Amino acid sequence: MAILLAGGCGYIGSHTAVELIQAGYEVVIADNLSNSSAKVIDRLFSITGVHIPFYEIDVCDRVGLEQVFQQHKIEAVIHFAALKSISESVELPVLYYRNNLDAVLSLIEVMNQFSCKRFVFSSSATVYGDATPPCVETMPTALPTNPYGRTKLMTEQILSDVALADKDFSVVLLRYFNPIGAHESGLIGEAPSGVPANLFPYLTQVAAGERAYLNIYGDDYPTVDGTGVRDYIHVCDLAAGHVYALDYAAQHTGVEIFNLGLGFGYSVRQVVAAFERVVGIPIPTRIAPRRAGDIAESFSNPAKAQQVLGWKAKRNMDDMCRDAWRWQKMNPHGYAD
Which domain does 88 fall in, by range? Predict the structure, then answer.
């Protein structure tokens, strides 16, 4: 019996593969490598000592998926395989709707064909819109301001409808906040293509001298220092949450939603100050205009995950800074090194 990681070569998927193997699960990865590298498979072997079966397929491809299910007894799917750039989704909405919705529909159809009834979905805090934090799972969702976020909300609805129609189906929706950091080995981490859209890879590239300064988008928000506040969580803590979610799905049917976050936020300036203190490298910054769609602050209430799953984040901001910097130093050009 195996767990299929759709998009398992990506940032969060690769770290989840490590956590699952360490918890005793068998893992199979399917990834089209559009935003990842096949080198991840070798890195995962170096960390775990396990040869993970890997299929270079697009999970929108039903025929390819059927072949994976024919080769392995898949007991559950964790779905990471989605395009994820907010700005790109605004420029290319059809691509995002086609890929992100086709992927989940293809997975469900093939799962039904092979009587696989457990699904863990990589969702996002964007479904809360601009709700006043802390965000709790009982809050009403809001239509996100971009196609990427809308595909997350639509996928949550699709999966909820599937579970409503099939009483044997189990769905766990994990709403992520802001994953950062890397595995302590320095062998896997976040490797964005081109100019990073997220704070931390941009920050570490500035620290490495690859970029002249860090843009801070807006310093006039109603926050502690005027910069945006977000709930940052170490990617290994986030990955561990999927193990707990799988265990839960094995014992329950229907739909359950969990926030995965620290439960409090850091401003951009606070993150920069923490990085400078931990790493000992000054980070030049420049104030830039606010970005469209950005909100002042967002952070979670993760109490439900702790009470129901028994999951709680263990690592702090110092750990996140230290591990992200180790990854950057060891892999200055990501997996291209």
Answer: 2-179+234-263+300-313
